[in-house]
Structure formats: structure tokens, C-alpha cells
Structures
1.
Amino acid sequence: MSIDVEVWRAQARELGRDHGKAAASWVIDGNTDHEHIARMVRMFDEGDPALEQYLPGYPNLSGEWADELTPDRLFEQVTGLDAHAEATFNQDAYQTVLEELCGAYEDGVSETFQTECERILRAALPTACPDCGEPISLQPSGWWTHDGMPGDCWRQSMDGPNV
């Protein structure tokens, strides 16, 4: 096993970042209504732990689904080496490198996943009232307002996530 651990760690971290961003892209789709988006943004703002159940699946190394990464697949993808051979003939070094790569991958995912989910949600918040077209904003109270004042067509947007 050649000693390229720092390069491999950087590659695993970048792969984790890429997977975190890709998974976050599923946070909303073209059918997600503005009220649901606003509720999720408010949950982010409040640090509500229940938010996690409304986010897409967090990338991991479980291999739960076909062709998903496992620690061995991550090792092979990043190093280009055969995981079985390395584990058989150089077990201690293999385990050390495997732990480093898995940690770097998970760090990359955690650096990007929730941040990207929040960025996507905030970018999708409407800037105009869907009823009248007037400029609106989401207030900390959870109400849509027209320039800071409730308008004739304002709506409460915080009844709880629609799932």
C-alpha cells in the first residue's frame, strides 16, 4: 500500500461533500408549496430537532441500498486498491487507512448536507405574495407579511410541516 493517506483523505472528504450536496438537492421539488418551505426554514432558524425527519436521507456508508458506498467501496474508490487484498495481507495498515477515509467522508457530508438543504430552502422562499403579487417576507413570528405589515391576503405559514 503506497503512503498517499493525506491525498486519499482529501479525496474522501471531497466525495463526502459531493454526496452531501447531491442528497440535499432532494429537500424540495417542483411540487413543494411555499408554506412548507417556510416552515422548514423556520425550523432551521429555531434549531428544531424535528427538522431532521423532513430532510432527505443523510448520506452514509451503510450500503443499505444497492450500489451505495460501504467502507470497503469507499476505500477502493479513493485508493484504487483492492480492499479484500489489503485487509488480508496488510490488515493493520488497512484498518488505519479505512478509519481515516471513513472519517474524512463523514466530515465532508456533515460540512455540506444541512448547509446545502438550508441554502436551497432559503433560495426557494417566495419574494412576492402568491395571491396578490405584492412583495412579502417571512417574519420571525412565522407570518407572511407585505413590507412588514400583514396584508389583506396574508397567510399564517407555521401550522406544522405538510408531509
2.
Amino acid sequence: MARTEAIKQGWIPRPGRVEGISLTVTAAVAVLSLLIGLRSYALGAVVGGVTVIVNFIAIRMVVGLLVGGGQTKGFTVFVLLAKLAALALLVIAVFAFAKINIIGFMIGVLGVVLVIIGESLRGTGNGAF
């Protein structure tokens, strides 16, 4: 199936306002960290921000499958647990092998979480929140 068909059917969510603003905030934090000379913080912020954005998109995909009625609830729960396990393994691998700065990572995560909270309080009206 072509990607455009998957998007039309709602299996792949279109990038929304949250993703765009989150990428902007992540980039701004990384550039600010680089400007003040903290390369490890910048790399950690980028990895943390991108990880949370990818997780957010994956959750939207799974919720789209559940709401669309295309799959059973048991399968959807299995997919959510598999996604959670994959995310946990990814984060563990990043910290174990890539030696990412944990404070920078948390700053990147926090930036995206604040965008998600802000957009949900704002009431985007696009069905995401």
C-alpha cells in the first residue's frame, strides 16, 4: 500500500502542530546549548526531543488504529506494550553505548512535553487533544 493511501486511511498521522513546534523547540535548545559551548547538552537535547516526538507519533498511530476499528483492542494493547519496550530499549542503548548527557536529554524531553501540555491546554481542535 502506498504511503498516501495509508495517510488517507488514517494509519499514518499527518505531522501536526505539536510535532512542528516540538522540533522547533528542540532545535532552539540545541542551538542555544551550542552557543554557550555545551556540545554534550546539545546532543542530549536533540536525542531526547526526537525520541519523545517519535514516541508521540507512534502513540498517535496506535490510537488511530484503535479508534478506526481496524484492529482488536488486544492487538492494540500488544502494539502499545511492544512500542513501550522498544522505546525503553532504545533509551537504555543510547545511554549505555552513545554516552549521551542525561541532563541534556531531559532538557530535550522537557521541551517537547511542555509543547504537548501547552497545545492540549490551548485546545487545538484537530482531534489530537
3.
Amino acid sequence: MTGTRLGNGGWLTVAILCGAGLWMFAFAGSAVARLWGGGDDAADADESGGADGEAADSADADGAPALDEGEVLPAGLSLSGPIRCTGSNDVRVERKYIKSKGDGVSVLGSCNVTIADSVIVAAGDGVHLAGSGDVDLEGTTIRAAVGARVLGSGDVSLSDCSVEARSKAFVLRGSGDVRASGTHVKGGVDALGSGELDDDGGNDWR
């Protein structure tokens, strides 16, 4: 069993090798996040209302996320599967290459999620926010069908980011807002909810 502290967020990552494969967990106080492992398709939030992240839908035989043929892991980033938050604790993820055949980051609870200096590559939504928690993206690139989809009351904030959407950059169906500053955005905006898109300046809309 090995442990490594990640960035300035105070998270401790622990890898456990067992008969079910290689599991990786992150701990910060009472919060526990499963980054990937075990090879199954879902991970439940802990009963205390924590958050979990898994990489099950883009997995090799050991349950770890897998790169496509010819795909290169950027220097300084470690590979992760999708991040999923269903509880009430705060989660911070730094310097990850988040790979998913579905949604990259999902927020279903009231927890707040920060993704910093990372890359999100997703077949579905880069960020899927259906809860009341907020998602803050800092220096992060999103490559997905939809950059961010807001269905709940939480907000998505992007600072010094890049959104490369194959369909819509932002889909707003709930009451939450999308705020962007210093961000390159490729893709349209679909806003049918009460939420708004706030341009805080320095953005490049394509």
C-alpha cells in the first residue's frame, strides 16, 4: 500500500493492490473519493455524505482508465476516470487527465467540486451538473460533446480554461449559471432554463 499527497488541496492518495485489482482512494478529513479501481461500473457515496469518483467506464483489465491508441498523456498529469460527486463534501482534483466514455465530471449532490490544471476528455458532457453544488474549473481544458450541462441549481465557473465542444459548449436547463473569464470557447450555447451565461471578460468565443 502506498500513499502520495496531491497538490495543495490536502488530499492523500492511497493505492491498494488486491485480488479485485488496483484500487485508488483519496482522503481529506472525513471526505473519501474513489479515483478508480476494482473494474466495476459504479461507486456509491459514503453514508456520511462524501463524494466519490470512479474511472470504471474507460478501463483496462485492472480497472484503471485506458488511453486510446495514439493518445498521449500530457506531461505532469496523471490518468483518472470520471469524477462523480453525490454527497455534501467538497472535492478538489488537480493535474488529472480525466477520461470517460460518458460524462467527465458529474455533480448530483450538494458538494462543491474544483478541477484545477487538468484535462477532461469525455464522450458525453465534460461537466454534468444536476445537483445544487458548484463546479469550479481553473486552468482546465474540456474536450467533450457538450462542455458543461447545467440541470440543477448549482453554478459552473470557468477561469483561464478551454472548451472544445463537438456540439454545444454550454447547455442550461436548470436555474444555475455558467460564468466564464479568460476562457476559449468553441461551441454554441443552448439556454432554455432560468440560468444565465455570464461573460466576465477576457473570453474568446468561436
4.
Amino acid sequence: MADIGASFGLVEQIANLGEGSLRKYVGATGARQFTLNSLLQVCTVLGLRVTFTVDEELTRRMKPQWEMRDLRMVHARRQPSLGPATLKRILKPAAAELGRRGGKARMAATTPEQHHKTKWAGTSKRGVSNEQRT
């Protein structure tokens, strides 16, 4: 900083950094590391322009270490979590609606004769099985 005649405090003020942070970034102890945003702010204050370029040799060496994208997980969606009060409030009506829709779909896909046979399938009323009822 002395080369350009600016103090750490002045650069920090212009770059909108916290007091004492620049010394932590560039000091001998290296207590902190630059974030990209902080680095660009300091470079702007110092009149430096940063240009990123692709280094083919470096890319070739680093590519085996890159984590590849798991195509099975690309469209994974997280289910929103609901609180216990919300679940208690909506679970019974939601289950009833799903049952109603399932019943409508089953009725639409079967004949009236099949309706009668499957209406009470697997249930018994007052100890009388379906076989005894018919």
C-alpha cells in the first residue's frame, strides 16, 4: 500500500470493508482469506482489473477431480415439510378426498355387476361373511 501512497484504512473505507479487515487479508499472518467479492472490491480501489481465462493444461489436470453430475438426481424435488399442527388439520380431509377420488375411479372402471361383488369384499357385518350373505 505504501507504494501507491494509500493506507489500509483508506482502502478499506473506499472498498466498503470492515475496519482492520484488509490487514487480515494481506498481512503476514494471513488470518483471513479473500472472498471473491472482497478481492474485486480491493482491486477496483487499487485500479486493477481482473480477467479470468481458461487454462487448458490446468483444466486437463483438474477434470478428473471434478464431481460429475448424477443424472438420476437432476430432477429430484424436495417435499415441503409440514408442521404437526398443519398435518393434524389437513390429514383427515386429504385422506378422505383421496379415498373419494379412488372410489370414483374404481366405479368408472367397473360394471354394475362388479360393483355389487366388490362393494363389501373382505368385510363382514355382524359375523356374517360375504359367502353366507349371497
